[in-house]
Design brief:
This protein has four helices and seven strands. Helix 1 runs antiparallel to helix 4. The chain has 188 residues and is of the alpha+beta class. The longest helix is centred in the last third of the chain and has 29 residues. Helix content is 46%, strand content 25%. It folds into two domains: 52 residues; 124 residues, Immunoglobulin-like, CATH 2.60.40. The strands form two sheets. The protein has a four-stranded antiparallel β-sheet with strand order 4-3-6-7, with no helix packed on it.
């Protein structure tokens, strides 16, 4: 049996180190990815901007664009919890864009209509049923909004199982490569 090729061990160690660094660096960059969650309300939009690690995006610029417009229709800044409000009066498709530090940017599309339009009411006096429906819709929006924010936060999170699975895949591939090269060396 030929002696063990130690120069290959150094190559394998270098490949493993490079793979681990390659896995660690994108994770650090993704941890600061900016996310935005926006919900319709009776008089406009409200939402929250946050980073992938769950921390709020404080004091960031939020702009509202109508459709594919290039000039913002309204602007706001996030508060200490990353929350914002944007007033609206005209139904349509909108884009909410949050510009964060270091070039981070998040965008969400939303369709908004005034509550009377959404309920298909006439322009006449409001009926008791219309008022009740409007109050019900506002209450449902208020209750569902935190759930939507939690869902957006969970979708953005990097899971430990994803990280461990990625490391296992890389270690397995390097091990397979080392086994194949060792078998090839024994034959040659």
């Amino acid at each position: 049996m030929p002696p063990f090729p130690f120069h290959r061990l150094h190559t394998l160690a270098a490949l493993l180190l490079a793979a681990l660094l390659g896995l660690a660096l994108p994770g650090s960059a993704a941890a600061h990815g900016l996310r935005v969650s926006a919900q319709a309300e009776a008089d406009g939009l409200r939402g929250q901007a946050f980073y992938a690690d769950g921390s709020p995006a404080r004091d960031e610029t939020v702009a509202l664009y109508a459709g594919e417009a290039t000039q913002p229709q309204a602007q706001a800044r996030t508060d200490a919890d990353g929350r914002f409000r944007l007033p609206l009066t005209q139904a349509g498709r909108y884009r909410v864009v949050v510009d964060g530090d270091e070039g981070h940017r998040a965008e969400a599309a939303i369709v908004w209509a005034p509550l009377a339009t959404a309920l298909n009411t006439t322009s006449g006096p409001a009926t008791t049923a219309t008022v009740d429906a409007a109050q019900l819709a506002a209450a449902v929006r208020a209750e569902v909004a935190p759930l939507r924010e939690d869902i957006a936060r969970l979708q953005a999170r990097i899971r430990l199982s994803d990280l461990v699975g990625g490391i296992g895949l890389i270690v397995g591939a390097v091990g397979l490569l080392a086994w194949w090269r060792a078998r090839r060396g024994l034959r040659g």
